[in-house]
Amino acid sequence: EPMLLLAVTDFVVNSAAFTYFTAGALHRNISDDMLPRRFPLQLKTKSMGLFSPKLQERYPNHPMELHLSARRQPLLSFRPDALHGTLFSSAEAFVVLPNATRVPAFLLNIDANVTGKPLISRNRLGGTVSLKG
């Protein structure tokens, strides 16, 4: 039987996280056209009006962008049952005006504890991720 053995330590993963964070590679810009059509929340001021009615009043039905980034290096650890991580991120929302100017709308700092568990079934590698806090 073919077999694959993979060994990775906390040090290797946290060194990679440090390198990516220091290089500024842990950021992502998300626009409405990047979200699936069935996604329950669209990146438009009309949808965000539920959270901020003044945003909808000031910029009716304008597109929005989210800029996600890491505020600090992610911390990761391996345990026998799963991969545990602590993420320190921020999400900044912008309203996109018709002339392509971006107006800051709000900023959320998000710290999260997540757990990932790898799954192998029928010769396929997959996994689950759950939010712990």
Q: Look at the structure and give the CATH class.
A: Alpha Beta
CATH architecture tag: Super Roll
Supply the number of helical segments.
3
The N- to C-terminal Cα distance equals 40 Å
Q: Which structural class best describes the helix and strand composition?
A: alpha+beta
Secondary-structure topology with pairs:
Layout: H1 10-23, E1 27-31, H2 45-48, H3 53-58, E2 64-70, E3 75-78, E4 83-96, E5 102-121, E6 124-131
Antiparallel strand pairs: 1-2, 2-4, 3-4, 4-5, 5-6
InterPro entries: Bactericidal_perm-incr_a/b_dom, BPI/LBP/Plunc, Lipid-bd_serum_glycop_C
Subunit structure: Monomer. Homodimer; disulfide-linked.
Pfam families: LBP_BPI_CETP_C (PF02886)
Task: Give a verbal description of the structure.
The structure is a single chain. With 133 residues, the protein is of the alpha+beta class. It has a single domain (10-34, 41-131), classed as Super Roll (Bactericidal permeability-increasing protein, domain 2). Helix content is 18%, strand content 44%. It contains three helices and six strands. The protein has helices at residues 10-23, 45-48, 53-58, and strands at residues 27-31, 64-70, 75-78, 83-96, 102-121, 124-131. Strands 1, 2, 3, 4, 5 and 6 form a six-stranded antiparallel sheet that branches. The chain starts with 9 loop residues before the first helix and ends with a strand. Residues 3-131 form the Lipid-binding serum glycoprotein C-terminal domain. InterPro entries: Bactericidal_perm-incr_a/b_dom, BPI/LBP/Plunc, Lipid-bd_serum_glycop_C.
